């Protein structure tokens, strides 16, 4: 069998990124904003693992091909946004081409380390979403985002003064706030598709709980992997559908399964704990009581 060669390319600075794209040095060492239409067309004929040491905020328009959103492919007729945190791994496939238009904003963590947005950006889960969980913008949303990118671009090309960093970062802060808002809209408008996802989650989770004795306690990462989703995206999706995070949803399923066993069998608490994948019975009892305000034995006794 032929081995699939994969080259790793680590980009530590924004200047290195400009060089790799065939562009002149950035005007600022810690941040840069580019238009896809201004980038040289690069033909890629190899698989490359890309690792960047800085944030990427990307708006793609008029990109060849389709975006796979969950189980549904979408044309790039509307703007599509992706977000990448430092040291995330991206795979560039042979034949991949740049979008015909759009924006690429690169920001090194040192640029906003002492600013409020430096703390806020860590709370935006969409920086850990997978590519197929991108933000698909409506026409009005795209116009709003475009105007913010244009504002950042204008500031980028002005001479640096005392206010430059504040102006750029306040605009980036507003940009991310809008993106967070639009992601919430996307969860709501795609609720029918997400309801199908919830059915799949329940099926996978029920199987995991039934096999927990052999496979161990179900975790968010394992569940997300089985769903072909990132853990953060799955958790955010469940939050919108059920009001619970993925971890809370898993715990609820475990407790419901435990209740059935307690009422319908004479298994001891220890046996039930091990059957559900808990390493220690005390951990199971603690979780059960935190969710029901009763110990497992007290719950069983209430049915006798």
Features:
Arc Repressor Mutant, subunit A, alpha+beta, Jelly Rolls, 47% helix, three-stranded mixed beta sheet, 304 residues, single chain
Describe the structure in your own words.
This is Helix-turn-helix transcriptional regulator. Residues 199-302 form the HTH araC/xylS-type domain. Pfam families: HTH_18 (PF12833). Keywords: DNA-binding, Transcription, Transcription regulation. The strands form 3 sheets. A 5-stranded antiparallel beta sheet has the order 2-9-4-7-10. It contains 12 helices and 10 strands. A hairpin with a 2-residue loop joins strand 5 and strand 6. It is elongated, with a radius of gyration of 24 Å. The longest helix is centred in the middle third of the chain and has 26 residues, at 164-189. Helix 3 runs antiparallel to helix 4 (164-189). The chain folds into 2 domains: 7-189, Jelly Rolls (Sandwich); 192-301, Homeodomain-like (Arc Repressor Mutant, subunit A, Orthogonal Bundle). The protein has 304 residues and is an alpha+beta fold.
């Amino acid at each position: 069998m032929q081995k699939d060669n994969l080259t790793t390319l680590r980009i530590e600075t924004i200047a290195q990124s400009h060089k790799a794209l065939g562009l002149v040095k950035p005007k600022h060492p810690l941040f840069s904003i580019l238009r896809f239409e201004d980038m040289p067309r690069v033909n890629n004929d190899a698989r490359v693992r890309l690792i960047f040491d800085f944030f990427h905020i990307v708006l793609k328009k008029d990109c060849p091909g389709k975006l796979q959103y969950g189980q549904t492919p979408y044309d790039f007729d509307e703007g599509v946004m992706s977000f990448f945190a430092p040291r995330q791994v991206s795979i560039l496939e042979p034949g991949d081409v740049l979008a015909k238009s759009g924006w690429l904003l690169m920001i090194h963590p040192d640029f906003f380390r002492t600013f409020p947005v430096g703390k806020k950006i860590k709370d935006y889960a969409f920086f850990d979403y997978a590519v197929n969980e991108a933000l698909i913008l409506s026409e009005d949303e795209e116009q709003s985002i475009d105007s913010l990118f244009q504002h950042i671009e204008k500031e980028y090309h002005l001479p640096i003064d005392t206010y430059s960093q504040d102006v750029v970062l306040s605009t980036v802060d507003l940009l991310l706030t809008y993106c967070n808002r639009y992601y919430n809209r996307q969860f709501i408008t795609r609720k029918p598709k997400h309801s199908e996802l919830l059915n799949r989650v329940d099926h996978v989770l029920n199987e995991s709980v039934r096999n927990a004795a052999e496979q161990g306690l179900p975790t968010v990462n394992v569940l997300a992997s089985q769903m072909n989703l990132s853990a953060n995206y799955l958790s955010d999706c469940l939050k919108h559908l059920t009001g619970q995070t993925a971890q809370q949803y898993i715990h609820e399923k475990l407790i419901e399964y435990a209740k059935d066993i307690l009422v319908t069998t004479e298994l001891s608490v220890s046996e039930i704990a091990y059957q559900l994948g808990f390493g220690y019975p005390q951990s199971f009892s603690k979780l059960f009581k935190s969710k029901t305000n009763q110990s497992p034995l007290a719950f069983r006794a209430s049915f006798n």
